[in-house]
Predict the structure.
Amino acid sequence: MRMLALHLAVLAGVAALQFVLPAYHHTNAARILVLATYAIGFNIAFGYTGLLSLGHALFFAGGMYATGLLVDQGGWQPWAALLAGPAAGGVLAAGVGLLALRTAGPAFMIVTLMFAQAFHLAILYWGRFTGGDEGFTLSGAARRLGPFDLADPATRYGAAFLLFAAAMLGCLALVRSRTGRVLIAVRENEERTRMLGYDPFRAKLLALVLSGLLSGAAGATYGLMFGYVGGSFAAIQYSILPLIWVLLGGAGTVLGPLLGTALLFYLIDWASSVTTASQFVVGAVLILLVLFAPRGLLGLLRERGLRSLP
Amino acid sequence: MLTLEGVDAGYGRVQVLRGLSFEARAGEVTCVMGRNGAGKTTMLRAIMGQVAVTSGRIRLDGAALEGLAPHRIPQLGIGHVPQGRRLFGPLTVAENLEIGLMTRGRGSRTRERVLELFPRLRERLDQAASTLSGGEQQMLAIGRALCLEPKLLLLDEPTEGLQPSMIALIRDTVRRLRGMGVAVVLVEQRIEAVLDLADRVAFVETGRVALTLPAADLSPAAPQFARYVGV
């Protein structure tokens, strides 16, 4: 109960932020909330189930392109197209999982990376439909969900908040559920979980599909919110970023993805404003993190006393 | 209850079990003894489907186990407590037990029975498993296996590295399980534990059961211990 109250308080704080943030940070916060949703999806696979994928950009960009192409070229209503985003992420994750989950460890990383790279190359190859590297922009009508216009900053923040809140509370419910415990058991000791009568393959596939679904939802929402669908979202950078967000905030914690995404976002933002060698600064901070808080900031907090933090 | 007939099994090209035959009966404790590398742990792993059985038959109440998906085997009512306990460290005691309970759809009555066997676990329900003492971890490992309500329990050196009071508790638990009709297969190296608990003793040598004797026929100075265990 105490933990639920803590998470609800964080959500209340995030909801209240929109009323005090200046315009620049208001847009940043909306962006962070959607990217944190992507990180929550990644965390279900990596943080809770132990699946280190290097191909999550496939699910994020898959959701983004499914929604973007359907609304832009397929003539779908934005609402319907928005629902196609998570569906695409989930279906892609199921397809990848059925093959990639036959491997483990480094092989799993490489197989997932290859799938994502193939998708990225396919976007570039079929540039006539996808816009190639440059991508394509969405019209104002394509970004209007009934009476809600996502071009409006307040609406955009509201949409990002709703998506993030649903993902965060869903993740909290999952990890507190019996299914969530089985996922953690698989992460801790797959063989032992099998010897207690569970099929680790099914558990990992479920985790990957849920992860893909959330990643796809984040990608679809991101595309509609900012009116742009581009090939860079399918590049390897967008597979590495959620890993760093989750590691920074705390893998296997519900709030870690938000904290990590926000910190890295503003670290890059600040470093690039003071030096052209911003990547060097970011790299140095990440090295310090690995040295002093290898389980991430909330992981450190959990080690130092807040043991029940989910 | 459980029979193995002419089982060959191993790891890749390394064959460990060579025509091993073995039997465990309901309401009996069968101790398995042998030198290091004789194949005791591999025998338990073969029963659980963790190593490939290349020939022979493994039957539980007549049902074939070889060829079953490994996660199906515990669902038939076999609990396995391996060496090293292998708990889910970040999960609490209650959550570790719950994972055992969920497998066969068991509920609070089974959990209560386990907590009656190990009252210490009741005091630690909300504690992470990784923070328990060695003896408490072993209690939890056995308790989690008992959550499956097994008719056959495989214990691989459960008293290794434990203090005497814990050893006594675990032995007492094994006796109670035997009284409840559970077939217990106990891999054990301590002669006094074997003579105290066992109904029968199977001596394993180079991947097969070389000799099975009623425990009542053995004494601490029996030559079989020197011959097959080296003590």
About this structure: Chain B has a mean pLDDT of 91. Chain B is about 35% helix and 30% strand. The longest strand of chain B covers residues 14-24.
